[in-house]
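Chapter summary example.
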Amino acid sequence: EITHSTHPLRLVIHDPASKSWHVCSDPNIIRRQNYVIISYRYSDIVPQGTDMKDHPALKARFIREVEAIMASLEQSAYWIDLILEGQPPEEVDKDLYRMADFYRSAEFTLIILCPPAGVTEESVWLTYAQRLWTFPEALLSRELRFKFRDGKVTPITLHQLANRAYPGFAEESILINAYGLRDPLERLTRLSLLKSALWRRTSMTLEELAKPGAEPHFRAERVYALMGFLEHRIYPHFEETELQALVRLSMANDNDGIVERMVSLLPPRIRETACWYAEEDEWGAKLWNIEPEIQVVGMTESEAIVLGGCRAAAIRWKDFPSVAFATRRSYKRLIANYLPNLFWELLLIGSAMEAIYSKLPNHNDQGAWVAIVFAILLMLLAPTLIVYGTSGRIVNAQPWLIGVKGLISAEQASTYMYGGAIFALPRMFYSASGTHLSQTGTGRFRIGDPAQYDALRSTYNPGDREDDDLYTLVDTISATVYYFRAAHPPTVCLYTGRESGMGRFVLCSETCTANELHKETVIRMPWYISQSMRASDWVALG
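The structure predicted for these 542 residues follows.
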């Protein structure tokens, strides 16, 4: 299937012989014909609340007005979406598939504004700009002209249109400057801004679908409007959902990784279904700030995406495991670790010496008793010596992710995993910016502020339902404690991307009945943690 086209499938063409207009579908005629795109507001020609039986007459009257305008401009052909009415769905799909090419190939786009009496031109432009397809029409057209009521057809530049239709919209202004060749934009930045701008607009189709008993019809219309700005397009499906179309479009344009980047975002509210979808990020990151480390390879019927190339790790909730670790080398601690092993040898030597000396006349058993007393002292001091011997700074630890419901301090986590320590530096630290509950210290080095634990502890009530979603995650590799909130305890950690020098890790709970993972939250940890995670097979995230 050809994804791009230089002309529409149908045009309304003027026949000089019969002095009439007719719809032409002959490609040999259409490809040699210059034409004009007609842009309008449907509510101008068919006001809301109009009886259905009056719709055909109102549309026919508008068509006659359009043809009169075309004649006055000495134009012999035009395209308007009303000619698609009554066509088979597959034919409508083809035109929607190539809509962006129609704008680019037209001589100009004519915006016809014919509001009811009493409506000002200023308000008409604002409502015109709120419609979905008017924004792609403006950006993709070679030239713009407009006609207000019975006024003249007047040329209008893209920036003049922006001043009338998009005042106060930062994203639209950036895009207008980019398409007006004033300010260049990186590709992903441009696509992200386009998506935000299009998703903010309303669609007649989506409004009709919201009505009770409405039949499914192009529910993914906003995605189809976005795909006109991409090199690779997807064929519209009559009944597919918006998320299904968005995933297909992202997979077709794999270099952009739009959906892959969404996975790493933490929205203000995570959806119950299709939890991967996100438009905002609690840390303020944009799609172009995320460097994805995964790839979307498919989508399930429940709108869960299938991820490939994931690195995953299980989160242990049962208890604190016995963590193997290594400390910094120190001769004092090495000697302290070895001394407890001598007490039984000294005790045996002292006992043997006492037994031998006792059989000798004029024996002197002071040496034997010194050995016995020294052995007893080593035995009594053995716990302290062992604790001191293992109290050095930890330089390597067995990788574990440990989940705790509620709060524990970094000191408690250190004691549970590594035992007690004396004369030692801290072994576990607080997160500086890993979650929204983290606090950054004010010292010379960038470390987490221990005050975050005290702040949470002062208001934490284990029996309160509001604190039932508070959890602690302990990471042994970075020796860091993270506090976060989640609707359900996450059991799986996925490494999905990088941003601002930190790794983005998605904590997921398991939906066993659907064999899917569900995003509970996203935390930022050092990216090197992923090197200790296991490369996994395809994972469904829904």
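To summarize the output: The first strand starts at residue 11 and ends at 15.
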